[in-house]
# Entry
Amino acid sequence: MTISRLIASLAAALSIAAAIAVFAIVWRPELSAIAPPEPHSFDAALVKRGRALAAIGNCATCHTVRGGRDFAGGLPVPTPFGTIFSSNITPDAETGIGRWPEAAFTRAMRSGVDRQGRHLYPTFPYDHFTHVTDEDDRALYAYLMTRPPVHAAARANLLPFPLDQRVVVAGWKLLFLRRGRYQPDPAQSAAWNRGAYLVEGLAHCGACHTPRNALGAERASARFAGGDADHWDAYAINAQSPAPVPWDAEALFGYLRAGWQADHGAARGPMAEVVSNLSDVPDSDVRAIATYMAEVFGAPTPERQRRADDVLAQLKSPTVPAADTNTSGAAIYAAACATCHMTKRSLPYGGVDLHLSTAISAADPRNAANIILSGIRPVEGERSPIMPGFAASMTDAQLAALLGYLRAGFSDGPAWSGVAETVVKARGIQAASLQTSPPPQTAPVEASQRAQP
Amino acid sequence: MMTLKVNGQDHEIDADPDTPLLYVLRDDLKLNAAKYGCGLGQCGACTVIVDGKAVLSCVTPLLLLEGRPVTTLEGLGTIAQPSPIQRAFIEEQAAQCGYCIAGMMMRAQALLLRNIKPTDDEIRAELEPHLCRCGTHMRILRAVHRAAHLMQTADASPVQRSAP
# Structure
């Protein structure tokens, strides 16, 4: 055997090995289709548990278009790489998951592969769902398979080449998908462990609240350090939290339960939907999430606590902050905002004192601009915060002046940059949201139906 | 003292700049179509049009309106010559107690200004912030469609009233 033939054989062997490796990474078998199971074949208690789990997973938010049928998919999810449309997860045989066996559902949750063996884009947060237990996947499957089937074909994603090739997702998974069950920490309480299991898994809090790297994966070194959710700032929910008053387990529980908290204000934007979904979830799970997240936030430093105490003390005798040079912003605040935000009327009927507002203390003015433009719609059938939107009554210049004044007068932070641009962008988004039908009713179900599967 | 342009006419207003527009309209200018409902921007009864958009006048202080034209229901038409939206609401008998109707008409007018052929869903979505306790909602829907039709055809002849 000559040297050259040896090299050729080696090269051939290596390329075969490489091909096998690539094949092993990329190829996933199709799982046989089943006849859509009869809804009555599922245990009612299991379905009911699945309902609460689906609420924790916030499934309906991405898998339902505004005003559309539940779980029928089609919602455009904007990403830095292109637009991905959510899929139909109703049990429709042709366009939904009606022909998926439970094993296919569990595989999708665990490793982001559909029944036919195609890789799913990680906008479906299987990097979190991979931690969900078999038992919980079974309940979720039972819940989804007993929803009314909706015939709604998937919309084609708007992705450039080569991202439109699903094989690239296999590479992404190799880099970023860390499978594995949640391992309870025996040193922690049952509630803490339950909370950790939910937060890191099904609730996928990090999907919005953790910043992402250039390849769209959550940055492991910056867990919960704040990210983006649509056009909202998903605040840091760790020690870097911009909230003027530090969060603790009790405050988090109240906020997640009611959608507002006296020392922090009201949940808005995508978080309002999260909280609204959580109203389907038992107290014990919400408390578990609060328990775990309180530790993620961490105990405040003495300096931070002192500043919070100062803010809270100052609220006892509220004064309108001086205007320095921005007299128009101050005048708008006094005329349009103070009547609710500087009264003794407590939440949810009065506005939060803006010294307590995370939106005003946050690094950028996005959320504040969004809220002022859109206001807060009341939740049907619930006691909830309200605020009129000012999109039609305030000009861009007036809103920018108001934001500048609020930042200077109600937070310790440096002046925001790019306020005018933010206002223009926020208004564009607000106007676009008016073109669609009204948002789904934020109270998830009639109270009388909550106990039923 | 500030100048406020209402229904095409300039008015010198002597009021604090933080006075809600609604108070100025009703108390100073005696334009009583816009109603005081909740005072919190939650019921829609006080709706007027500013710069072509529906605005809740009870939570809109005067100082936001410098140089911006305000239109109230009185500015759309008169009893002798009702505007299409007014005619349509009369012809459909869309008012029962009528307290919410002026606001409904103003937001419907703002809708028709930017979308001359709204669907049922679009009308429902647009008027969603307005509360009506009498329950004339179906007539209101019909009236908005009728107004859209009237605006398109500019037809001045009376239209036969639909059965109740």
User: Anything to note?
Assistant: Strands of chain B lie at 2-6, 9-13, 47-50, 53-56, 70-71. The CA atoms of residues 4 and 11 of chain B lie 5 Å apart. Residues 2-75 of chain B form a domain with the Ubiquitin-like (UB roll) fold (CATH 3.10.20.30). Residues 158-164 of chain B have pLDDT under 50 and may be disordered.
